[in-house]
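P.,

For your records, the input lines for the assembly:
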Amino acid sequence: MEKAKDFYEKHKLIVYLILFAVSLVVPFVIEQALILRYICTIMMYATLAGSLNVINGYSGQTCLGQAGFFCIGAYTCAALTKNFGVSFWIVLPLAGILAALVGLLVSLPTLKLSGIYLSIVTLGASEIIRIIAQTWTPVTGGALGIKQIPYPNLFGLELFRPKYYYFIFLIIGVLFLFITSRVLRSRVGRAWMAIREDQVAAKSLGVETSRCKCTNFMYGAFWAGIIGAAYAPFVNYIESSQFTTDTGFNVLAMVVIGGQGTLLGPIIGSAIVTILTETLRFLENWRYVIYAIIIILMMWVRPQGLLGASDSILAGGKIRRKEKEQGGKKA
Amino acid sequence: MEYFLNQLVNGLCQGAIYALMAIGYSVIVGVVGMVTFTYGEIMMIGAFSAYYIFQAFGNNLPLAILAAFTGSFVIGIIVYKLCYEKFFNAPRHISLLCTIGISMLIKNLAQIVFGPETKPVLDIIENRTFTIMLGSVRLDIKLLQIVVILLVIVLAGTLTLFFNKTKWGIALRAVSQNKDAAYLMGINVKRTALIGNCIGSGLGGVAGILLSIYYYSVSATMGGAYSMKAFAASVLGGLVDIRFSALGGLCIGIIENLGIAVSAATFRDVFAFGFLILVLLIRPQGFVSKKGVRV
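Structure tokens returned:
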């Protein structure tokens, strides 16, 4: 791990170039459309889990309702492109903005709340969004969902093969990673992390905690909306049952397995969960049993996730640090 | 008017079940100090234990309630050992995610063991309707509804007695108020938390069988929606106060049924959660006047 980090620090440019070349070649080397679809799914969930990670991992709020924002993005895209013939490329940012606005609405009652109250409000909001999608038949098609969502059109080329989606998801994912890493290094991002470490201390140092929490929610919801909009034509058929709270928990599990508060964690988590659930398909319900056991084991053995640091506050680092200090005093 | 009054009765009955769920939930949250997402699955296990009792011994309601309580009690021990015992000093989200994992585990194991289909629970209580005339308004009350409401009242009363009069109950309340102080008073905090968790789970199991009787069916995936209702109801009551949680459950039941009276039945959950969010917006600590515990 240390060596890999050192190598990365020394040869940043080479690493990026190699990654770039590999990602360009992948869809042309892999011939089977099915495997390519899996890779697309992994990239999609990686971005979605990343957007949740911005809320859960970086500002320390336990949001459980990412499926709702995802749902808004998907339905915005499907309804606008199918009913009004709006271009996919216009809908994409629009879906993100709409999800961000709903994120603002959700975050307003949560400003005063913390911990579990916040979790239940986000969970409830996600469920409300899903029920509205299920019942608002003229726009969302009701329980039947929306079928045959038009494929995006790029200069007359209809994008329907997994190969094309590979590039759509790749571009969105890289954009997300790049912008997020910049934001996290900015004033706003540092404020989020300060809130995670100690809200009272952050407030005393002049961080406007409520506004920062709002922007944090909106930022996370924005990317969830965008990835939702890209998801709709990818699967070509959406219905409300794809956005249940279980989907939200799934995404949460990806973040947790990969490591909260790390940029690469959600990608690893998404890869592990997706590969696990797809390759073990023949086990039917047993695969969820295995999956659940992995989550519990993870919490017992490595609560900070695969890539998380052991002294992170998310792993109970603060408490351990305190114990160490107390132990030191005794000795 | 007549329709609304009848919906009010339905709401009262459903609210009574929610109140029982919320009581169990707030016992768990109060005593353990951590939230749980396994509550729906615990209710499901209770309902299934009762279902198999009905299959084996006929319509024996007291025995079924006992079985439901015991079944959920045992699951409560497992949940406590896996999710709480190690994590009393760890950050909150770790045990929360553990309970999500357990919930997935139990739900899917139940689908494998009990089968994925919805099973009917019929004729446990005689299908009889009492009609009351209030002036010109006709009010229909089912025997089932009366039994459910009475059962909930009896259980809540027993629990209040248990909490106020017995040594264990007082220990549970002490732990719920302040763990450190309780520890200094010579209470075995971990064992008390285990007992509290199991009693809360047992009540959840009884609520599960009431739900299955009320809706005439039981299935492995029934838990999800109701666990969120229980959650919402106890949040309304300030999470740890038993009386206010029961009030929260009643409120949610009534609001849901009045809400679907003015709109469509599919909006049931929207009213429940909309009401919850509205209350949290105005009074974040729930109904309770003093600041609720920070969980």
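Two observations worth noting. The first strand of chain B starts at residue 119 and ends at 120. Residues 59 and 124 of chain B are 6 Å apart (CA to CA).

Regards
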